[in-house]
Amino acid sequence: MTAADVVLRRLADAGWSWPGAAIGVLLLAGLSLVVAGLPHARRPGLHERLEPYLRDAPRPSRLLSSHKPAKGPFGLGELFAPYIARLGGVVERVLGGAPSVARRQQRAGLPVDIDRFRAEQVLWGAAGGVVGLVGSGLVAVSKRHVSVPILVLLTFIGIGLGVIVRDTMLSSAAKRREQRMLAEFPTIAELLALAVSAGEGATGALERVCRLSRGELSDELRRCLADARAGANLPTALQGLADRTGLMSLSRFVDGIVVAVERGTPLAEVLRAQAQDVREDGRRTLMEEGGRKEILMMVPVVFLILPVTVLFALYPGLSFLRFRL
Hints:
Elements: H1 3-13, H2 18-36, H3 46-54, H4 76-95, H5 98-107, H6 114-143, H7 148-197, H8 202-212, H9 216-229, H10 234-245, H11 248-263, H12 268-324
Organism: Intrasporangium oryzae NRRL B-24470
InterPro entries: T2SS_GspF_dom
Transmembrane segments: 16-39, 122-140, 146-165, 295-315
């Protein structure tokens, strides 16, 4: 008898019927689609009602438009996109924190798109709910007893964990990117100081360093140069870099360049001093992390190695005493 036969037999013993379950799921899905397609659910919003009157050009022919691939397999993404967007709005109303999400997306180097992030949270929550449902089903099969409250509770816990995990992943991505930028900062600052010492101006030094380097900080500097070429002055573009990252070292770096550009003060020594400060800060952080790891290393020594050593030291004496008694 295979494992599938065993599972089917246990489900049958628990009172589950696969045809009945399948019919119930299909019936529930059909009723959900009927309710979602009622007139009150598909009522056009303000944007759809005003769009025909505000359009200033006729719609081009569909033959001239590029064909967009279907979202998801068999176009299911386009089918469920409105419902996912609505659920994302519900998540936004429940959790809030749209400015925090936008800030972390900027820190992670992602385009600011709160609706897309909420939709991703909905998908992660759905995946967590499926995992919770499957886990509760396995527990019910093993115990041959179906508890509906536990089933619902585990499903909602899985949904909540999925939403929280996606939010945590965004924070982790932002933190990892900032750590890479800090690791690249001393080298970038040294290259800028070398270029300025050779006679380059601030803009020329930034362009040369951006051509020679690759990384997260170099990409941000290229974005600043692109903003400067688009019409913004260099101090304003660099201030955008400080606002997007939120690192104190980069804020001091931007302030030094802005002061040097506006007042004509020497820039090379300032950049070298900032690079040295970042190296010292990284060394201090490494020492602090090493101290924390040293404390964690004491846990297996105290709770595993030391008891075994004491046991080996005391066991011969205890065995001898028991033999004499």
